[in-house]
Design goal:
Layout: H1 2-17, H2 52-84, H3 89-104, H4 107-118, H5 122-130, H6 134-149, H7 152-159, H8 164-200, H9 212-218, H10 228-255
Helix pairs in contact: 2-5, 2-6, 2-8, 2-9, 2-10, 3-6, 4-5, 6-8, 8-9, 8-10, 9-10
């Protein structure tokens, strides 16, 4: 468990520190387009002469940042909706029907529509992607809150004079944390794949902000001539998703 977390931290730090020593990922030089491996360009260059290693490293960093924003937004918004649903039966009914409607819409379609119509900024993209995970987080918090409200220690706390609203919030918050923490690896790995898919179909960020999906999208025509330009970002995506999936399994096993 500790080794997995340390490994992920090293990867995070590497992705943030390595770009300081690499070439500008957006620096174009048509005269050096589609170069092979060399000392100046370890993974060669793309069609516009941009250093491919820099684009992969910076793209991995940006994809992780977007996934982090999606994870935080999903957990925070989902927690608030889950807590608000405990206020009354009417509020619970309204919010849960909204969550059902949101869950019924394909995440890829909804996120692509939002990012294309509202804007293609990182914040808009992260919020659009988080709609795929908010309903699940909200329902988990709601379920945990309902279980705690029925418990004897909650009733005992009210009998001791605790404010009902504040005590309901605090006890739900305290018992929802382990449940939401277990969701972090799943949301993180899923959002990396979702971002890559959105970028591949042209609904992700603009090309001046490299992401792993964007790097794959811009290199798709070179699959037969320069397969490494597709394989490198794909391998990074697989590594990220497998790492966070394994971390999620360890968190689950540790809890149960």
């Amino acid at each position: 468990m500790k080794k997995s977390i340390i490994t992920l931290l090293i990867i995070f730090l590497s992705l943030f520190l390595l770009p300081l020593f690499l070439k500008d990922p957006n620096l174009m030089n048509i005269e050096e387009s589609l170069q092979d491996f060399s000392i100046n360009h370890l993974l060669g260059t793309d069609q516009l002469g941009r250093d491919y290693l820099s684009r992969c490293i910076v793209g991995g960093r940006n994809s992780l940042l977007i996934s982090l924003a999606v994870t935080l937004a999903s957990i925070l918004i989902g927690f608030l909706i889950g807590v608000l649903s405990l206020a009354s039966k009417l509020v619970d009914e309204i919010l849960m029907r909204l969550m059902d409607a949101l869950k019924g819409i394909p995440a890829l379609l909804f996120a692509s529509l939002l990012s294309v119509t509202i804007g293609r900024s990182p914040i808009i993209l992260a919020l659009a992607m988080s709609t795929a995970f908010i309903p699940q987080c909200a329902r988990l918090v709601r379920s945990e809150g309902k279980n705690q409200i029925k418990s004897l220690h909650y009733l005992a706390g009210l009998a001791m004079g605790h404010d009902e609203r504040f005590y309901r919030f605090s006890i739900t918050f305290r018992h929802s944390i382990p449940v939401l923490v277990n969701q972090i690896p799943f949301i993180f790995s899923s959002s990396i794949i979702l971002e890559a898919t959105l970028s591949f179909i042209g609904a992700g960020l603009s090309e001046d902000i490299p992401t792993l999906g964007g790097v794959i999208q811009s290199s798709r025509d070179l699959l037969m001539t320069k397969p490494h330009m597709i394989l490198c970002p794909v391998i990074i995506i697989l590594f990220f998703t497998l790492s966070f999936s394994l971390l999620g399994e360890k968190l689950k096993n540790k809890r149960y």
